[in-house]
Amino acid sequence: MSASTTAPSPTGYTERVPVVWRDRTVQIEYQWIGPERSDAPLAVFLHEGLGSVAMWKDFPHQLCDAGGLRGLVFSRPAYGRSTPRAADEVWGVDFMHQQAHEVVPAFLDALGVKEAPWLFGHSDGASIALLLAARWPQRVRGLVLMAPHILVEDVTVQNIERARDAYEQTDLRHKLARYHDDVDSAFWGWNRIWLAPAFRAWNIEPEIAQIRAPVLAIQGCDDEYGTLAQIRGIAQRVPGTRLLELPDCAHSPHRDQSGAVIAATVAFMKAHSTQR
């Protein structure tokens, strides 16, 4: 499928590719990193619940340069420069399953990605990476997960409520608008489903037990959106999971402890470079 150049991100221009999803076509914003490293492993970056290509800033470039990797960064539908969520579109409890089972594979197919990449996910993006690896093991070389969610905790809901209040009462909306063409699409899609009563029962622990890919799970000890039970729960269910618990670190390890995250990720990928 053809791609079109869109607005610049902090690390250069991005492109968009049309992807057919549930009988409609959405444009997905993306950016390649180090495409000239044709023989290098590919890392696909899956952003957080309010993230986008631009929200990553230069971290994917730093990681790919440190590890000699190729990278693919993209904004899921409703985020960044991708097709916004329709005003009347309400996400269901299975919204992350839809991304993992339908959108991400279709996006990779649209770009002609044939190899099994490493998935580098943050928060919601890390949960999507887990679900994709459980459903499509042949499409995943390994997982690096930052602040993943495998179940809903009280602390998560409480801080998402605080985020809602900040969006309505402070300049948070203005700040986020720098990273999204339609900031209300991004924020309310994420916020409303996480605060929906039905979502309290969301739990992917049984599904992730099927994963056999190598997993590095990273979480800050001061994460305001989840406790260490999240990554420890992954380790209990996925054999061989390596944990990295970072002090003085909140929900975004790639910002709070970027050096530690990059070093651990590069070492982990190299240790598993001969697998698959």
From TrEMBL:
Classification via Pfam families: Abhydrolase_6
Gene3D superfamilies noted in UniProt: alpha/beta hydrolase
Key words, A-Z: Hydrolase
Residue span(s) of domain AB hydrolase-1: 44-263
Keyword Kinase: no
InterPro entries: AB_hydrolase, AB_hydrolase_1, AB_hydrolase_fold
Domain of life, source organism: Bacteria
GO molecular function, one term: hydrolase activity
The protein, known as: Alpha/beta hydrolase
UniProt lineage: Bacteria, Pseudomonadati, Pseudomonadota, Betaproteobacteria, Burkholderiales
